């Protein structure tokens, strides 16, 4: 019989790639994780891991077992939520992480209503990819993130959709919507490589017929706004992060959702938070 507690260890290894990283996420020692994985391989009767130096990868049997582990984890979350539903209406704390403009847009407005329901939010500022990791590692209960970052291990609830606006230096403000093609010869301030919002900007520029000449990078939209204000270039940013000029034609969009671990949406406290977040949008 496979011990479901060891499936959690296998999931952490699949998520983090090394025994050391999985141990840190589970608050265990690396030797304890190695012992749990060895015991799981014995229970499964198949080799589950391929070791390559410090990193490991899953065998076909390991990948199959991880898929089942996701189903088991969701059912355990659902079972806990069902039990907790017996105490619906009780006070409690819910941990939420989201990027700064989402905190301003929906999290902060929901705080007062939740406080009246004796529900306390513990809010953490985290970019979309980081909040998803925190959610899957069990460190938070709700992640406010972009829709495309979510996985089938999560249930997601739409909050709002926001367009990207053009941010121009002082004295360059346009009288109306800005044609991106008119900015082909400008220097650009964009997010760092690997940030999906950079992909949005580059794709929008490509559709306008040019490749942006990137001079400055930052993942902090306050810094981007300051650089543009100093005349360093132009930018394209989500409307709730930086106020700019609308894009002529079809503007790029980002869809913001509240994501929870699949099954936990039935927890009464999580459900109450989701309700208030959607009411605040």
From TrEMBL:
InterPro entries linked: LysR_HTH_N, LysR_subst-bd, WH-like_DNA-bd_sf, WH_DNA-bd_sf
Record's keyword terms, sorted: DNA-binding, Transcription, Transcription regulation
GO terms assigned for molecular function: DNA binding; DNA-binding transcription factor activity
Domain HTH lysR-type: 2-59
Superkingdom field: Bacteria
Cellular-component GO terms for this entry: protein-DNA complex
Keyword Nuclease among record annotations: no
A family per Pfam: HTH_1
PANTHER family: LYSR SUBSTRATE-BINDING, TRANSCRIPTIONAL DUAL REGULATOR HCAR-RELATED
Protein name: DNA-binding transcriptional regulator, LysR family
Protein's organism: Lentzea xinjiangensis
